[in-house]
Amino acid sequence: MLKRMLNIITAQTVINVVLPVGLTVILFVGAVFLLTLPAFEDSLIAEKRETIKELTNLTWELLNDFEQKVQKGELSRDRAKQLACETINHFRYGAEKKDYFWINDMHPRMVMHPYRPDLNGSDLTGFTDPEGNRLFVDFVKAVKTDGQGYVRYMWQWKDDPDHIVPKISFVKEFKPWGWIIGTGIYLEDVQARIDQLSKNLKILFSLILFIIVLLSFYTIRQAGQNEKKKALAEKALKSSEDRYRTILKIFEDGYFEVDLKGNMVFCNDAMSKMIGYPKEELMGMNNRRYMDEENAKHVYQTFNEVYRTGKLHKSIDWKLSRPDGTNRWIETSVTLIRDSENQPAGFRGVVRDISERKSAEEAMQQAKNRYQAIVEDMPAMICRFRPDYTLTFANENYCRYFHTTTEELIGKKLTHFIPEEDWHKVEKHYQSLTFNSPMKTYVQKAVSQTGEVRWREWTDRALFNNQGKITEYQSLGRDITDLKLAALEKETLEKQLRHSRKMESIGTLTGGIAHDFNNILSIILGNTEIALDDLSEWSPARRNLTEIRNATLRAKDVIQQLLSFSRKAEQLLQPIRIDTIIDGSLKLLRSSIPSNITIQKTVKEPIGIIMADPTQIHQIILNLCTNAFHAMENVKGRMDIELANTFIDESDLKNHPGLYAGNHVVLTVRDNGEGIEEGILEKIFDPYFTTKEVGKGTGMGLSVVHGIVKNYGGIIKVESRVHEGACFRIFFPAVNVECEEEEKSSVEIPKGNEKILFIDDEELIAQIAQKQLERLGYSVVTETDPLNALDTFRSTPDLFDLVITDMTMPQMSGEKLVQEITKIKPGMPIIICTGYNDKITEAVSQKIGARGLLMKPFGINELAVMIKNVINPP
Prior knowledge:
The chain is α+β, with helices and mostly antiparallel strands. The protein contains 24 helices and 27 strands.
């Protein structure tokens, strides 16, 4: 068998098949180890830096609570400092419970250190670490500058004085006492996680490379054995799955797969250990067995969202109920599993145990609450009442606020003054006060006698006798209506700001990814086309290479869609027929719409043409249809989508404010769902307004639809009654132009014999371009350094008939290079190529002296036509 395989594997086959795949793997592995791992390390350090900052701030709050007691005369300052030192000296956190806090003053002298009591009271001015850093002096400098800061130095490993390692600490000044409090992280912890991840990735990539090599030989061998291909492919797939499951066993994080009902299908050892059941017992177990009802509702909402959208859902916190009675907190990322027919088959997830982090957060929060409970505010309204809710005291401000008198209040039950529909909630609130949790604050929304909505904040405390029984409740309140309204307004503005910044960040990130990814696609596409050109028509490898080429072009389209979504690509309005876009949108929607809902599309006549962006029209249809089937989730629903032409004359404009007279295309989306209440109807186009539960809506869908339609010069109208459904009608102005039809006739690739200078800092791209251009008949000189290219052109400007240059290069940009070349030889034909650059357009490229602009990746046909048009313009 080996001899037969060697007869099949020729040098040409290796070049045509194995080389493109190998280059792709090398690029991918390089990207992971050169970009992803360093980014992950930076992110991990940043996360730990933020954690120690939050922990230091919480401990600072503890010192502040002691200072408040000093200010109130409850403690002397010396006693407060003593208690603070004793408390903080015992604080421990981290996986081994060995991470700690220390305190020194501004001299600096050591006030308290749990692992170096020998330094307590010592002058630390001359104290240095093994590298000579005067770390305690650096702490003082940091807080004198900003009141807080990070300092890096060498220190002993937790409680081991013989093990000296790098450490980063966050310090913060507590001015009332002249103290500096701090805690830190050890960089060895971070490096250990990075080393383990790198090791796991190396194992993974080795296995993947091994599989790719096997599959490459397998593909070549199968060229003459198509009948056995299916059986061998299934065997290879089974082998791949076994390796895949073997890889999962070495991961520290948990991994699981469940069917659509939530029954466990597969999990690795780490997941089994987290849940606390043996793997054999977990198989077939429904995940409701290891979570309570509250968590189950939250988890199933997330799974349903993943099912509907098909998108990865990151970072859902989930509390596991283990069989031994303990609970573990996990952080889960969930995605959809599809079968061979692309239908949803289940869910898979990656799980990380975050119990230690949750415990640390809860412990610090509990400590903060205990100390804050000591501090009492004195709001304007004060009353007291017995456990049977009989009022025993009300101050003058309380009576004035409620327009009553003390005589009318004392002796009456609190139930007389609270609406019956609200009493159950209020009673439950007071019953929740216990000896261990005697005080709680809540906000009450109420309607005054004048009909005005008022917000009140109440702080209630239960008072106990020596036997631990409640003898009385004390309630302190204040009107916070103005604060509440201001907070609501601020929250709205912050949401808008966060959304704006998020979209800006997405745009910036997408632009950077587009440039690098399109360069990679250029290498793949170029090698694939060269390989196709080298193969004979009957070669069995042509089919695989053609699939690679088609997939590369699809990837190019995906990048363009991402740029369009993030506004990094120019939104070009073009003549379109909206009915063809609706067909594509409905195909996408049908898989996510429940079976109890039927869809009826009606096109009454040949529909007119409108000026629009197809992506935005697709977005409008998805938003309206998604809202419609959400309104019909609990009924046997029907959704009607209609398209019609209409003419709006001058006399009818009053019924359609915002339109101009003329022909229009009307899109109607109608459902028989629950309908929209009249009070809500006028708010549905407001940003962030939503009536959907958390996880189902953002409040931006209809707002975006309204903005797009208005930008097109159209209007949107809605009619709805409760329990009778809703009807949305959108009027688009029609235009008297024809849609451009894609040319389908094949054209012979133009060739030439001119001399071309090609510049690109990616050596692989330059090599591919040289091969392509030479096959077109051109003589080519390639350069990867723009400065060298400029020197070459300057020395022999008349040697070249055309210059092709990349836009984004180190040392000199393509724009600058074009300007320098045109100075040397005005009118020189130049083509600019770019993977992505938001500053370059057709108009800009012509303005700086270029005659053509090519967006990577481009095929040899596109390149040949562009060259011919530039050298010999029509």
